Amino acid sequence: MSEAATAVHSYANGIDQVATPPDVIFSIEGEPQNQISPKMDPFDRPKHDNDPIEDAVKRCHKVLERLECPFIAGKDKDGDIDESDELTESEDHDEMANEDDGIPANERKVETRKMDCTTGQLVAPKYSEKIETASSASESSDDNEYMAVFKYTIRTCYTIWKKRQKNSEIALKGLMIILELCLNQPAARDEIFSALVETLGFNTVTFWKNVVPKVFDSDLTFATPYREALLFSLVLYDVNYSKNRLRELYAAIPGFRQSMLGSRAKQFGERYRHLQMKIARSRASSRMSSKVGSMENLPSMSSIVNEVFIDEEQTHVGNQQPLVDMSHDKQRVINVSNAPPVSISRKTSGSWEIKQGSGGLVACVDPVMSADKKNIWLSNLGVNMQEELKEHSTTTNSLGLPLIKQACAGEVFCVLERNEKKELTPKQQAVESDMSLLSVLNTYNKHSYQLNPVVVNQDDYDTYYGGISNGLLWPALHNLPQYISTCYDDPETLRNQWCAYVRVNYLFSINAARNSRAQDFIWIHDYHLMLCGHIMRSLESSLEIGFFLHIPFQPPANFMTKYKTVADPIIRALLRFTKVGFQTSRDRETFVKLVRDHIKRTKVEYDSRLDRYTIEHEGWTCSLGVFPVSIKIADFVNIAKNPQTIIEAEEIRKQILGKCAEGGQLFFSVERFDYTKGISEKLRAWQRYFEKYPDRIGKDVLLQVAVTNRRSVDSYRQYQDDVMALADLINEKFKSEEYPDWKPVIFETDGLPRSRLIAHYLAMDIGVVTPSKDGMNLVAKEMLVCNPTASLVLSTGAGTEVQLSNAQFYSEQEGKCYHRVENIADTEAFANNFFAAATESKDTRVKHGEKINQFLCVHDIDEWSDQFLDPKWTHEVISQCEVKQLGQFYALMSRTAQTRRQIVECVLKGLPIRPHFAISLENAKNSLETSCAEGTKLTLEADEESGEEKGFKITYDIRDELSEMEKDLAFLAFIQSDEYENAEEFIKTIGSFYEGGPVLFKNEVKQAAEMLQQGIHYNTFFTDRDGTLKSYACSYPTSVQPAYSAVIQAQFARRCATFCAIVTTAPLLHTGILEVATIPEGYYAYGASAGREWYLNPAQQFKDRSFSAVDLTLMNKVFELIEELLEKPEFKTFKWIGSGIQKHCGHITIAKQDVNGTIPTRKVTRLYEELVRIVNDFDPNGTTLTMRESDLDFKIYVKAKLKGRIFNKGHGIRLVREKLKPNMSKGNCLVCGDNESDIPMLEECLKLAGSKVYTIWVTTDKSLQEKVTHLCDRYSCKNIHFVSCPQVLLGAMAYATAHTLIDERNRKADNYYDSDTPIDAEEAGSN
Are 232 and 58 in contact (CB under 8 A)? Predict the structure, then answer.
């Protein structure tokens, strides 16, 4: 084998780098020697229009020959390959676990100390392929053979590559060849891509690390669209299989997500498009160098952006930096729909004309969008990529407008700028036309909200809209399976068209993600875009996305089985939205039942107070609500009251009823000419009406307006022709000799302008709205809003009927205010409804009509949009409730912890605060206050969650919990005010809660801050938590860290210290520190159980192993006995106060007193005696266990083997030094504590850093102050300060953070990982 064939690409797999010739060429047997053979190197040439299959097969065969594993058709080679997925020694899976920097925020580390602001955007993919089905048996056979080759190549190459042995680089190239084929035609090759991803398994992250640089290099050298294609391929895989493999790509390449979706994606994209245009105009034969494409530069790919957009440090008056850097941008609504809010047409002159639309969606949403010009509406305008121009990219420029046929556009701009008269090619003429469209849109956007077109491939759009959307989903969700296209009986056709639906949803999703900010609300509409929730949450998990379904949700019984390819991903995708709205409770119940029956591992809950379902699935939570759509009442009423409209209505009645007998009634019906509207059934019932009641012949007239649409769809065209033939038949069958001009049916197919439509509403006697299935059908509401004296014939298929029925407008008690058609297929009953409406007295008609009119006027379109957009009804907001049970109390405090974590994340990232944060905390606070019998005393009963027997009660003093919530609410008000940059104003806000008053608080804070500032920058910072940084709560599970405290601590760690650790006696989990902490990972290490178990992030955890398994077993037995003891009525209270009972790594904690000292001394003594008895029974000689007592707790320790001493926080410091090796002998060290258990931590730090230790203690205990001072004197440490409460320490940290200008020289001098050396002889001796 030649050296060229085995040359190793730089950095791949950790194998030594070997130089590779620029072009590795392999000859193919049977080819002429003068013909250029295919390159084996993937991603090394521009994308070409030739069929890539043959080329990929040849390259795969060549790779397999080099690996000495040739493919033999018809022979199963699996037995020759070791496909076991066991990890080899050379695979660093710890490294893979650490590389999670790009994983969505809710599934990974929220942020590290230094925030990465890498951004950028790429153009939309250029899909030049057509999805074609096999046209012959021979083609099908070829496809099967090709698939066999590719799957064999994947298995073989993966097996060799993962072992990191000989030929692993050649095997990696084989896998890359397969990937390149998939990215050439992402939708057509999704089966191959799925096989590749599934085969890679746990090695996916490593694979992307090695492959993505080649993908970037290809894009930035040859202007290929592989990055976008890779993103879409993973999205398609995730949608089809309900996975989240995209997170693995983010983990492998932390900058990938920022380059596609970051805050500066548009600037990144502009520069990338400039490169594309340059390459498109001058295809150089020589390979261009790529600054970003190389592996060594990939991690810093943001340099393209950062070299222009580096954030400069701001200078602040008085050397004060803002404690928080907040964005006060208002939340926008980004509305996403298939149909646009405007109609666009082309004049005969060739210029474009844009008019405001008038459809149902526009009427519903336009009032919301028009409230703010910064709102964005994304939709398809019908101007898409045509077949002959598909090779050009489509994307969005920095103004949000589409750049169509980008490569040609550059040439057109040049012509326009030079004002030269140059003949344009047909392609350039098309571009020039599109530029005029951009000008029209730009003008529109100046005077309204921002309208951004989503441009897609026209073939994809036709398949997505005319195929899956209206050929399958529309009839299926209306429960009309007879209208589902029979082509979907073929699984291959269904799969191919499904890919187009996914691709269009993907383009809508990525456009929405790129145009959104973190605080925006993205509102997706209707069945065309049901996948956007899944796709957008995969792209960026922090987005808030809502979905509203405007049509019914009543799929047929076989929907989830016969059409599983489509149905299953859609149901799962809907569960990814933050909230989903349905028109009726009937539709929502159907969806919930479908989820329960077909989607595994879901948790469904119903809240009757809010009428809300909450569904948890795969780590996501979705709220389901019912929001009946309405109309803008004022618009219709104003037109109805217009004198001209009234005159026009009288003329309509005269024109129609003037040809009828006296007492005739005008029935009016208007709708789209759609099979879901029940027009055919209506006409059959109308025919039967005259057959049953011949005396109505010559009197009554049905004026039917059916606006023709979708004539291009066969099922629609046939239906419309049949209905019009039926109308003609009725007119021929029923005639009146006395009134020869009378016609039973007047059938019109042209739409009516709004004023003319309302005139018809006024003219009618009876409105007829009888769809087979409809989402809401606003026509019924329009009729009775405009004409409350009219009667209404309404079918149960209309959502309006469900709403009115639920409001008791059709009941025995309240009366039947309309004529309900239960089943439009029941012609007899339908005809009877017509007769009942025609013969109803005028007084009854007016009474019922006015009653419904009043209801509709109250529930208008503003109420619909306000209720849906209001966050209060969703699972994200804590609802106000009565807290009576232990489980309710702990669940409520846990919810506040989640809300506080979100607040802290927003503040630290500089994102605007969402309104529901304050609502949640206010509701939680009010719930606790109203549940207290007196003052701050909360009495709680046992429940199932607490595990206690019925009848057990405990009273808590929740003063601390309420106080901390008040401070957080004040903090939220501060950071959203104009004073948010003023740190002193924030400290003043905290001081307003200080018992000694704000003046005393300010002075005490300033003194403590002066000492903190003396240290300038701390190399290490060790602190206790409860009592030091947070006041004691009534119970540890409720000791949730407040948001303001977490922000102060995080900012102090970011600006004033290098290595920070919170060392606590609490355990890590199971009511431990991680459950009550709200600081994001990356700021502090947590040393739990007195530093015996450490947690930095999920991949970095370690424990002390100084005790044996026998000792651990002994401690577990002791713990079981203590649990039994605390179940006795006499001692049960101790289980629910303070720390309760906690099992740590190496010791047990049992609470003996609450923070307010309410437990009687005799009861504490009895507990002490029982604990001593248990310890002595198991360890009478005291060789293994020892018991200690503090003010609030008893602790039982397993003694460390070293000298038989118990493990304390000093040993915890030694353990973290041993594992992480922070250099404590160089640089300053800060230590904070509040009781004697913290003294060993201070002593250990003094041994290492001596006089460079700075320590602040939260205590007023003179005895403890003397001990701390004496200990510091032993090590010549004079940097000691005492404060009265945690509030003061936090204020001092905030002050120091804002006022200390970090000494960069000091920071650079911190040799964090240097080994420790004593800093002087005295310290050496003390060691």
Answer: no
